[in-house]
Amino acid sequence: MSTHMPSDSPASGTQQASRQTNYDVLIIGSGLAGMSLALRLAEDQRVALLTKGELLDAASAWAQGGIAAVLDDNDSVEEHIRDTHIAGAGLCHEDAVRFVVENGKRAVEWLIEQGVPFTTDENNRAELHLTREGGHSHRRIVHAADATGRAVQKTLVQQLKSHPNIQILEHQIAVDLITSKRLGHLSDKRCYGAYVLDKSTGRVRTIGARSTVLATGGAGKVYVYTTNPDVATGDGVAMAWRAGCAVANMEFMQFHPTCLYHPAAKSYLITEAVRGEGGLLRIPPGYDSAGHRFMPDHDGRAELAPRDVVARAIDFEMKKRGLDFVHLDISHKPPEFLTEHFPNIYAKCLSLGIDITKEPIPVVPAAHYTCGGVVTDLNGRTEVEHLYAVGEVSCTGLHGANRLASNSLLECLVFAEAVRNNIAAHGAIELPPLPAWDESRVTNADEEVILSHNWDELRRFMWDYVGIVRTNKRLERAMHRIHLLNAEINEYYANFRVSNDLIELRNLLQTAELIVRSAMLRKESRGLHYSLDYPETLPTALDTVLKP
Question: Catalytic residues, which ones?
Fold first, then answer.
């Protein structure tokens, strides 16, 4: 059993006065992947859990739908595997899909053991209530009403805060990973921890770790419209890329079909389960074919088609008719059914003057989930020794070209256990003194306005040129602008003191470049990547792998 407590050791180089804090494991990110891993590791490891904001600011807490797992006698592992492959458009890895699905039931049982209050069946409170979402052939989504992510996270937070082996580092953002290259060791690729900006003091800390885990989530904030929280800025993908890790399938950005369209509603997702329980997509009044249910015109599965199909259908109807939004109508269901199954959505819409028991919900597609990411094996290991990636930041082979609804939280849980087992099975490395961060740089007074302008420009052209439908010309325009912004931001980063906004924009630009590079390499339309120049799907499905 490890007995390592946080320790201070002098940093090497010219700034010997600086000190580093060491842990057994540094977890960067506080979503379900990071939280569940921290709790599993803390049995015999000293863990630091790093989060940019508060513990509940991660995308996991925003998840409404639930967790997909085979829990019903009428369902089967093979059918869940088949549904995942179909949604993934032929690009899912069989070993990863089988690994996750076969371990799904145990993952849900672990959450139940932690005290997560999942919704039970109204006729048999001893049984979990299972709902169905797009792409699933059975009811297999375990949920806590329509706020599953928050219920899970709130349950785990209490245990995290009281655990003696876990130190929670809030309001701190990783600047970059500390690798062998920074130590001058060019013959190997190893991670020793990270430099971390304490946002309250503006100072950069050196945190050494025998194992470092990226659990930073996705990159939805690279787009104007997203269901993601503000912290989803592609930090883990960008840091891993700079550290020497391969990334894969970054072109597959999932756009959730139904984000609430209202000027007072920021990034509010209307869960897939609304369509799963009978919600219908219609043309709003004031346009041609007002009230027309249009999904059957696009796919035989109608509203229960996978997300990429539904998002493209909505995008098509909006552009065809000049719509700002479409309607999602579930008002034909009994009011008591809606208030019981979707209490948070009901309350949110009602606060904006929309009564979902009597009228439809205005919705638009929005960037939702990054299906690609840092390449890992089934133990969560990256190409850099002692560096792991888990959750949305990773590319395990599970999601392929389009994530099946509610497989994301499942992946977090299953791979958190796998990472924990791998760390426990391997001996800890000794941590050398690490180079201190250069604190001599000054703050640039012009930084904030320039960063704000560049951030807005990036998100706008990514939405316009690298959105739901793409062309070669649009991708070329996006890459040209990325190169211009990169040159400007890298000059800032090299010469001025780092800030939260500078770190996030640097990471967003790097992630955007990887998305566009990947999209330019795929000469077909598959899953979430749809190109007007290459509308056909090639007979062989191949990953898009980029190496630094």
Answer: 307
